[in-house]
């Protein structure tokens, strides 16, 4: 095995590790927590409501355990367990419904209001430069949990599309989800 060049920024044991293949100048960043998402852990096996649906189960837990940031009458805001960027929120109706056209007027209203509030809270906490907002309708469109509609609010910053996600297929999150939840909950607008 060819030795990886040493760097003053890397501990020796990370530079030379048996079993990592042919050495190269790149440090491997291991993200084993992502395997839970890739393997479908906690993903419902049916489109039905109930204990198999995490979005049905979360409202029954304490906010800190469920990572719920805010609760409205017909929907709630929760941190994504597998975030694209720090502060990645999902807005979820309490009712188990799969399609946007099936939402009630109150659910549409709450999701719209939660979207605005989420943007304000994230800007207050982390000065996001922009947002990606949207939902994937159906498994074929990329919905990870197709049976329970949810809208994503993903904060974006200038330069956040650096080499890590593009080349390394890795996201670097500088803060624990519980800490992010606490900051957002504290900064959530009261209107």
Automatic annotation (TrEMBL):
PROSITE patterns: HIT_2. The active site is at 150 (tele-amp-histidine intermediate). Keywords: Nucleotide-binding. CDD domains: FHIT (cd01275). Substrate binds at residues 80, 152. SUPFAM superfamilies: HIT-like. A motif (Histidine triad motif) lies at residues 148-152. It comes from the Bacteria. The keyword Isomerase does not apply. GO terms for molecular function: catalytic activity; nucleotide binding. Residues 54-163 form the HIT domain. This is HIT domain-containing protein.
